[in-house]
Write a structure and sequence with these properties.
CATH topology: DNA polymerase, domain 1
Shape: globular
Helix content: 55-70%
Distance between the termini: 24 Å
CATH class: Mainly Alpha
Number of helices: 5
Largest sheet: none
Structural class: mainly alpha
Strand content: under 5%
CATH architecture: Orthogonal Bundle
Length: about 100
């Protein structure tokens, strides 16, 4: 599967779960959950597309900083659970261990 195919598939799930866009409180936990299933390049591509379309309210520098942050610290369990439940509500199974 090409990077474009992966990005398109993930964008579909995210937009189904967040039809009004990703709220600022969910940006980092969403990227953290994506990071457990995707490579850094895939996470960056998804985040860049979401930001470009106005569905994710961060810019390129914020995306890079968030990806770097993912390797050193995790978002709170509460934040992860909130985003996980939202994604699972539209059919995206998220491994509970993450």
């Amino acid at each position: 599967m090409s990077l474009n195919d992966v990005v398109s598939k993930i964008l579909g799930f995210i937009r189904a779960g967040y039809p009004l866009g990703v709220p600022p409180t969910d940006c980092y936990p969403l990227l953290a959950l994506l990071h457990h299933r995707l490579t850094n390049d895939e996470v960056k591509a998804v985040a860049t597309q979401l930001a470009a379309s106005g569905d994710l309210h961060i810019d390129g520098d914020d995306i890079s900083a968030a990806i770097t942050r993912l390797t050193t610290e995790a978002p709170s369990a509460e934040d992860l659970n909130r985003v996980r439940k939202r994604l699972e509500s539209i059919g995206w199974t998220v491994d509970a261990a993450h």
